[in-house]
Design brief:
GO terms for molecular function: isomerase activity. It is built from ten helices and ten strands.
């Protein structure tokens, strides 16, 4: 049964014992913007208790924060930094919903998983990836700080030293390194209900102890810092260049 949502790029379907939430925006490779985030939040909050599988189509889990969205926020921050802070903090609602969900949450990653998308994956109990999956923090490439709890959740998952290194370097990780670092739990071949079921059978129960500790405070501070950094003219120049490059690539 399909659940109606506020954004057609997100679908929610019950598949026997699993509730599948799927992002499907080929134009942006499932980049985060407010309508998409709102639909994700709606789907998670209305999901039945059980197993939630969060995934993306078109060879991408999520490419992170959309460049056009971030550039628009940078422009808004000139006159309304508080408004930008509130918008960024709203993105954190997805993270809280996942961390505090009574369901078992699974990020099924097939393709790119970057920035804010990585934060969403890290907020799940399990991360299952295919052989073509790739992971990157991406923030440093644009001179941006973390959003969606990505940096803090990365620290909790793989340790502070390695997390800080990946945030600074924006190193692109394949599944072999991601598995070695403990970023993902398993590499799978089947990206359907049976594939998820088989993988979960072979994994230990999720460790939920302290998962949501202080996360609200982290997301509050993160939003304030993001709004401050994005209002910096140097950051805006980097964003403008990146947007021009993106538009040129799409036109060619």
């Amino acid at each position: 049964m399909k659940t109606p949502l506020s954004d057609p790029r997100v679908t929610a379907v019950q598949d026997k014992d699993q509730f599948w939430i799927t992002m499907d925006d080929p134009a942006t490779k499932n980049a985060m913007d407010l309508p998409l985030v709102g639909a994700l939040t709606q789907a998670i909050e209305n999901a039945p208790n059980g197993i939630i599988v969060l995934t993306g189509r078109n060879g991408s889990f999520s490419s992170g924060g959309g460049l056009s969205t971030v550039a628009a926020l940078a422009e808004q921050a000139q006159d309304d930094a508080k408004g930008v802070e509130d918008i960024v903090r709203r993105g954190g609602n997805v993270i809280e919903d996942l961390l505090f969900s009574s369901s078992t949450t699974v990020a099924l990653i097939d393709g790119s998983c970057a920035g804010a998308g990585l934060g969403i994956a890290l907020a799940c109990d399990y991360r299952l990836a295919t052989h073509r999956s790739r992971f990157i923090t991406a923030y440093s490439k644009l001179g941006l700080p973390s959003d969606f709890g990505t940096h803090e959740l990365l620290r909790r998952q793989i340790g502070t030293e390695l997390a800080d290194e990946l945030m600074q370097s924006s190193e692109l990780l394949g599944v072999t390194k991601a598995l070695e670092y403990g970023l993902i739990d398993a590499v799978i071949d089947r990206t359907d209900r049976k594939g998820v079921k088989r993988a979960l059978k072979e994994l230990p129960p999720p460790n939920r102890k302290g998962r949501g500790v202080d996360i609200s405070d982290v997301l509050d501070l993160e939003a304030t810092h993001f709004a401050r950094v994005i209002s910096d003219p140097r950051t805006q120049l980097k964003l403008e260049k990146a947007v021009r490059k993106m538009k040129k690539a799409r036109a060619s």
